[in-house]
Design a protein that fits this description.
Strand content: 5-15%
Order of helices and strands: HHHHHHHEHEEHEEHHEE
Radius of gyration: 37 Å
Bound molecules: adenosine-5'-diphosphate, magnesium ion
Number of helices: 11
Number of domains: 3
Structural class: alpha+beta
Oligomer: single chain
Number of strands: 7
Length: 411
């Protein structure tokens, strides 16, 4: 069932409750005020509606309002119904008061128990606009009547209304915050579930694809040797197969089961290892990689393979951003005693803020042969290690990637 449909059902439930209570309270309040109370207090003489007003005609009007409300519910235009009832009531009541008191010396004495009800029940629609209209409508009615009838007595009902409005406002804000939190939790759970399914699918498919891909690559290479006249096409084929392989390898990291081998490792060893792998490729592009590690670096508890993957992805990106050569600095420092910060600083193309914001999105790449998965995987691994990654970059000047990792226990 879609969200709009569920919300409509909720509104209908709230409306049913609202309409039944509104009419019951409205009529009961009138009966008590105009019949029961005068009869008990003053004998039979004062029974009935005040002179000059709509009197009994009030009821056909209110009944008409109910018919209009039912018409709109039937027409599936339900969100408007509460406004119709409220504005209709305020309008009828206002006319009634003017007819009774305007131009007379009668002391102003009006109000229906339905008004506190309107305030206190306004949160059931979980709608701030409706609450504002109710508050302004009722307070405004008394204010305008007070001015028109020169009746300072309206201050009393106004103060009462403001108190009710405060209570209703607190309830409404709580309701809204509660609904919001539940909605967010639900969305997060859905997202996590989606990722888990994607991860599982990715690993299964990746496993299935890898083997045929390897033989495909082998045969293509063989064909390349057999047909040197088409070497150009075969090179492209091999390159594309390698790209598929890269995508598949990176996707596999996503779906790995949660159980990792967290053991204590020296971050320096991991960094030296990664640098040794990429050094040759870097040299081909005229890139040197220098290291600046502080002497006393604490060991970190991590999954060694994954940590290597993290720095491999980041240093590879640094190399790929410097087609014209240059120097990459890999720094490792200890901060505040409980964090190790590794920085990879390149002199590459750099990025504008817009690009930095997109980094880590699946398949976001600016490279012709890129997968756009490297940093997404990196973020995921770091998240599992309770680490963080941050980018500082200037277009045309270079990029600094800071990776923070906690020292000590990792759950
Ligand atoms: P890929 O390397 O396959 O493109 P990544 O997720 O590793 O995917 O990186 C995504 C994008 O982020 C890259 O295409 C590039 O535009 C940008 N990027 C990442 N690191 C750097 C860097 N050091 N310098 C400039 N751009 C970078
Ligand atoms: Mg990359």
């Amino acid at each position: 069932m879609d969200k709009a449909h569920i919300l409509i059902q909720e509104e209908v439930k709230a409306l049913k409750l609202f309409l039944s209570l509104f009419y019951v309270i409205f009529f009961l309040s009138d009966i008590l005020y105009y019949y029961f109370y005068p009869k008990v207090e003053m004998g039979d003489s004062d029974i009935g509606f005040p002179e000059g007003g709509l009197g009994f005609w009030m009821y056909p009007f209110m009944f008409l309002l109910l018919l209009i409300a039912i018409y709109f519910i039937k027409k599936k235009n339900i969100y408007i119904v509460k406004y119709i009832i409220f504005i209709g009531y305020i309008f009828i009541d206002f006319i009634d008061n003017i007819m009774i008191y305007y131009g007379t010396t009668k002391p102003f004495d009006s109000g229906n128990a339905v008004e506190p009800f309107l305030f206190l029940f306004s949160p059931i629609f979980v709608n701030k606009r409706y609450f504002r209209i109710v508050s302004l409508g009722i307070v405004g009615k008394y204010a305008v009547l007070g001015i028109m009838l020169h009746a300072p007595i309206v201050i009393g009902p106004i103060v009462l209304c403001v108190s009710f409005a405060t209570i209703a406002f607190i309830l409404l804000t709580r309701f809204q915050s509660y609904v919001c939190t539940i909605e967010n939790m639900f969305e997060e759970a859905q997202q996590a579930e989606k990722l888990a399914v994607i991860g599982k699918m990715a690993t299964t498919i990746a496993h299935e694809i890898r083997n045929p891909l390897t033989s495909l690559k082998g045969f293509t290479q063989m064909q390349r040797e057999k047909h040197p006249e088409d070497v150009e096409y075969y090179n492209i084929m091999v390159q594309e197969i390698e790209r598929m392989n890269a995508i598949v390898s990176e996707l596999m990291v996503l779906g790995k089961p949660k159980k990792r081998h967290y053991t204590l490792h020296n971050i320096k060893d991991i960094l030296y290892y990664v640098i040794s792998i990429v050094e040759q490729t870097a040299a081909q592009y005229g890139i040197t990689i220098s290291t600046m590690f502080v002497k006393e670096l604490p060991s970190i508890k991590c999954d060694e393979k994954q940590m290597k993957q993290v720095f491999l992805n980041i240093i590879k990106n640094a190399i790929e951003s410097m087609p014209g050569g240059g120097n990459i600095i890999v720094e490792a420092n200890r901060v505040h005693g409980d964090e190790v910060v590794v920085s990879v600083i390149d002199e590459g193309c750099g990025m504008e803020q817009e690009k930095i914001d997109k980094i880590g999105e699946a398949f976001y790449t600016t490279k012709e042969n890129g997968t756009g998965l490297g940093l997404m995987v990196t973020y995921k691994i770091l998240e599992e290690h309770q680490g963080e990654m941050e980018f500082q970059s200037r277009l045309g000047i270079g990029t600094k990637v800071n990776i923070k990792l906690p020292v000590g226990e990792v759950n």
